[in-house]
Amino acid sequence: MRQPWVGGNWKMNGLRESNAALLGALKGAEQLAGVDVAIAVPAPYWQQASEAMNDCAINVMAQTISPHASGAYTGDCSVAMMQDFKLSGALVGHSERRQGAGESDALVAAQFAALRGAGLSAVLCVGETLAEREAGETLAVVSRQLVAVLEQYGAEALATGVLAYEPVWAIGTGLTATPEQAQAVHASLRAVVAAFDINAANALRIVYGGSVKADNAAGLFSMPDIDGALVGGASLSASEFLAICQAA
Ligand code: 3PY
Question: Taking CB atoms and a 6 Å cutoff, what residues make up the pocket around ligand 1?
Fold first, then answer.
């Protein structure tokens, strides 16, 4: 039995005042029993979120991370900086980073390694574009992105974190994969991991991301291989986000 995981990806949203209201509403929520919950917040607000969630079960994460320990990497943040603010882990390979910031499979694998090396968890994001789906390349693309990490670091390391399937065509478009479409990809991803290690595959939480909302979450979560969600815009509303957590 896998404990569901729900993460809120705030992306580049929020300012101190609105964050304080959102964090206050999340803190102490009773809907969180039986589900692991995390929020991935912009780096300037790590401290604010970490302090606000200090004595509550919600983990605070980074949205991306440098693979380097320190040095001349202008604009980047290191794993040690995350640890300084008591963050639990980071997203790696979100499509907005792969596409917008040119993050390659190799870089994502190096970010994964930096997190694991520090004992922090990684939420590895994979997903295909609309053109790739229409060309019938979905499984080839997501498997390639997954295997880039699996081959180097193994299935057990992956299972200490979370794998997020986020079809790029469902991000920020209001389109959501149907539960059946998502389930088919999740089952294939689990089979890829099982070829490396069956126990790790069974333990791995594979969550869906891409326009998840309170009103489509339950249908997605009813699928056997969908173990939670990585939530974008809906995570900026405490009531929506908590309703999704409750559905998990
Ligand atoms: C979305 O749902 O828009 C996301 O990108 C979640 O990470």
Answer: 9, 94, 166, 171-172, 209-212, 230, 232
Active site residue 68: no
pLDDT level of residue 185 (50, 70, 90 thresholds): very high
| DSSP secondary structure letter of residue 30 | G
Domain of 74, CATH number, reads 3.20.20.70
Is 134 assigned a catalytic role? no
Greatest alpha-carbon pair distance for the chain in Å reads: 48
Domain that holds residue 228: 5-247
Confidence of residue 175 (pLDDT cuts 50, 70, 90): confident
Write down the catalytic residue from 94, 96, 103, 132.
94
Measure 240 CA to ligand 1 centroid, in angstroms: 14
Query: What's the confidence (pLDDT) of residue 31?
Result: 64
Going from the C-alpha of 166 to that of each of 70, 107, 121, 222, 226, the distances in angstroms are: 30, 18, 18, 17, 12
Atom number of ligand 1 nearest to Cα 212: 2
Q: What is the pLDDT of residue 1?
A: 85
Q: Give the position, in ligand 1's atom list, of the atom nearest the Cα of 164.
A: 7
| Number of domains present in the structure of the chain | 1
